[in-house]
Amino acid sequence: MSSQPFIVKPGDNITLSNVEQDCKPERIPDYTGTFQKKGETKKPLKKLNKRLLKLQELLYAESKHALLIILQGMDTCGKDGTIRKVMAGINVQGCEVVNFKVPSSDEIARDFLWRAHKAVPKKGMIGIFNRSHYEDVLVVRVHDLVDESVWKKRYQQINDFEKMLVENGTVVLKFFLHISKDEQKERLESRINDPTKHWKITEADIRERSYWDDYMQAYESVLQKCTTQWAPWYIIPANRKWYRNIVITERIVETLEKLDMNYPKPNSDVSTLYVD
Ligand code: AMP
Ligand code: MG
User: Fold this and answer.
1) In this structure, is residue 211 part of a structural domain?
2) Which atom of ligand 1 has the smallest separation from the CA of 130?
3) For residue 168, what are the domain limits?
């Protein structure tokens, strides 16, 4: 197992049906290896959330970097739940979530990256994209919304765009939440059976499910063509929500720690200050 579990390396050949969606203990890399049951991650997740809060404060104080987290996956894969759990306890003032829906007439009249670029976080901030510019090579490809000659060029355009962001101080983390088709069935059924979840389900969700294999193919292209040294993709086993949460939180904490951030020096000599 690589020292960076779940990362997709440039050149990796991805067949999603062979990539872990559960969290079978024997397949878990060393340092998450003790987590085999739901309850076991509660305490460590709380600890990680506390570390994340401190790191977020440092990110804000230093204001040299921004962090952009991109979440993608099939319907019900847990993008909303991840945002709720992973960001539990961070300072909401320093975090912005942006949802990417069907483009408006204003958005469709521009290049596909326009709305993404407008939404990237400022330095000091954490930005979360719930779906993203990747929809323009996913749903758009699966449903032929533009010509193949158009979407094919987008992989490189996305890589160039993300490189520009990184070179300008934005750290980019991309998580594909990998659930199985059976798990999606259960989650959709539980939405149908629970009146308090009806607002979460539409006919479109059921319809999209019938394109599962096309989506998997489109995701495989994204993961292979758009994992880069500067903005890697991670494939997160997401059938178990508790496992997904701890793995993603670990990746975020680890990434922020590597930035080696420091509190800025005060602009006056604090030792001479006194309070009446
Ligand atoms: P949800 O995330 O469930 O609120 O649904 C948002 C919907 O918007 C999904 O079905 C996406 O596939 C769709 N969507 C997002 N971006 C695009 C895009 N660029 N072109 C077409 N549909 C999109
Ligand atoms: Mg949906």
Assistant:
1) yes
2) 2
3) 4-261
